Amino acid sequence: MHRTNLYLTEQQTSALDRLAAQEGTSRAEIVRRLLDRALAGEDDDLVADLAAIDSAFGAYRDAEVAPREPGQREDHLAGLWERTG
Fold first, then answer.
1. 46 against 18, higher pLDDT
2. Per-residue pLDDT tens over the stretch 20-33
3. What is the model's pTM?
4. How far apart are CA 73 and CA 25, in angstroms?
5. Chain center to CA of 36
6. Once rounded to an integer, what is the mean pLDDT over residues 73-79?
7. Which end of the chain is more exposed for a tag (fewer CB within 10 A), N or C?
8. What is the C-alpha separation between 53 and 39, in angstroms, rounded?
9. Is 9:2 a contact under the CB 8 Å cutoff?
10. What is the 3-state secondary structure (H, E, C) of the chain?
């Protein structure tokens, strides 16, 4: 797998969290499933979806991100694995 960062609106994040909770899985798994569906042509409006992704690219390029201390990423990922099994 390759790691990819996405910037989502609050509404997208909320909807994604609801789906993940309903299915008992992670946000990342929901995104992978939706992307697989879209890439397989099972999405009703793939062209519009890809255009939206393209237009959002770089929207947060100037956002400041708090620095992480060594080990914080690993601790965060370990916690995710514990919650998602």
1. 18
2. 998 899 999 999 99
3. 0.47
4. 20
5. 13
6. 82
7. N
8. 13
9. no
10. CCCCCCCCCHHHHHHHHHHHHHHCCCHHHHHHHHHHHHHCCCCCCHHHHHHHHHHHCCCCCCCCCCCCCCCHHHHHHHHHHHHHC
- Determine the distance from the C-alpha atom of residue 69 to the mean position of all C-alpha atoms in its chain, rounded to a whole number: 23
Q: CATH class for domain 7-58? A: mainly alpha
Tokens at 48, concatenated: 């519009």
Looking up tokens 């042509």 gives 41
Residue at 12: amino acid letter = Q
> Other CB atoms closer than 10 Å to residue 30's CB: what's the count?
19
Residue 52 structure tokens: 């939206």
Q: Tokens 């910037």 correspond to what residue?
A: 7
- Distances 1 to 17, 21, 29, 47 between C-alpha atoms, Å: 22, 23, 12, 25
pLDDT over 60 at 43, yes or no: no
